[in-house]
Amino acid sequence: KAGVTQTPRYLIKTRGQQVTLSCSPISGHRSVSWYQQTPGQGLQFLFEYFSETQRNKGNFPGRFSGRQFSNSRSEMNVSTLELGDSALYLCASSLGGRDFGTEAFFGQGTRLTVV
Amino acid sequence: AQKVTQAQTEISVVEKEDVTLDCVYETRDTTYYLFWYKQPPSGELVFLIRRNSFDEQNEISGRYSWNFQKSTSSFNFTITASQVVDSAVYFCALSEALSGNTPLVFGKGTRLSVIA
Fold first, then answer.
1. Among chain A residues, CA nearest to B42
2. Window from A59-73, B24-38, B50-64, B67-81 with minimum mean pLDDT
């Protein structure tokens, strides 16, 4: 079955702009989580969506937001981009039921560069 | 607070050598899951293993093995007879059960280079 698909793979934006990243989870998976990966901070959790509702949120400013659609596809948006937002953004999908610890399957990520 | 420490930033071995990647975790919860992921140059994180806090049995899968010791809060990963294709960044991660599905907390990763 198809894996997790993230689009686009690469993006270059200018400071102050906004950006939207997209993630299509594995068919049947209802949970989508987003992570930011940078050389300095490593992998950090942004937020998780389950059945169109945000279920968990990491410690990021309000410029970072997301949503999930009825088909479980998710988008994340970053407004007023800063140089420090340059990172690899990874999306993970899982079944998402109350059986915590279900393994998450990751996409290849979107590499965002802010200039 | 939950925390995962991978003290080894980079490891370089010659092909066919065995290598162990260390992972130490901190959690106040008694119920949690530990994970290992592999990140090849293509970028995606590849799931390798999940272990729950009540199962301290060691696990072997082909050339991979994992040693979970609650007494030392460690979950180490050994690759036997390493191969060039094992070159990647390996992440250890923790998920607590405090409120159902909790996000993964990752260590900083260990970059493994296997030289032919």
1. A108
2. B50-64
What mean pLDDT is reported for chain B?
92
Residues in B 63-102 with any Cβ partner in A closer than 8 A: 91, 95, 97, 100-102
The distance in angstroms from the start CA to the end CA of chain B is: 41
Q: What is the mean pLDDT of residues A32-60?
A: 93
Residue B63's pLDDT band (cuts 50, 70, 90):
very high
Is the Cβ of A26 closer than 8 Å to some Cβ of chain B?
A: no
Residue whose C-alpha is closest to residue A90's, from A79, A67, A74: A74
Residue with tokens 């260990």: B110
pLDDT above 90: residue A56: no
Q: 3-state DSSP helix/strand/coil percent for chain B, to nearest 5?
A: 5, 55, 40
Contact list, B4 vs chain A (CB under 8 Å) = none
**Cβ contact, residue pair B100, A48, below 8 Å:** no
Residue A74 or residue B98, greater confidence: A74
Question: Quick check: A45 contacting B, CB < 8 Å?
Answer: yes
Question: How close is the nearest chain A Cα to the Cα of B106, in Å?
Answer: 6
Residue contact B103–A45, C-beta within 8 A: yes
Closest to A7 in 3D by CA, of A68, A72, A87, A75: A75
Contacts of A71 (CB under 8 A, 6+ apart): none
